[in-house]
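To whoever is on call:

I kicked off a structure prediction for a single chain this morning and the downstream step that reads the tokens threw a length-mismatch warning. I double-checked the sequence; it's 128 residues and nothing unusual in it as far as I can see. Pasting both halves so you can look.
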Amino acid sequence: MRALLFSLIAVISIASPSMAQDLRGVWLDNKAWDGVQAVVQMYDCEDGSGLCARIVRAYQGQLAAGQENYLLIRGVKPRGAGTFEGIINPPVSFVGDSKVTIKIKDAVTISYSSCFLPVCKGTMTRMQ
């Protein structure tokens, strides 16, 4: 029984960093910011605080002023069971920093949820 418990703990501790690895890459935000869907790059934060996500370009159309290279999400860390937490700052003037929960839905889709406003919730699809 003790060996089974240690094996389970080892699997969980190994799986957490690899799940964070799954978030790295290019994602299409299925929410439209000012009428345009953004392409988001998820990467290791420069300050080592976890993962960050920047809006890198528009999917179709043109991003509003100040949205290109915008730091959308920062400090994302695994919380277990395919769930991550960090800070989101949507590119809208009336919403500031708030805690965000990111969940892996399947191999190509993640969801994010933050404040009670619709602007703080959405999904992203992995781009090839």
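Update from on-call: the warning came from a stale cache, not from the record. Cleared it. Sanity check on the structure: The first strand starts at residue 25 and ends at 33.
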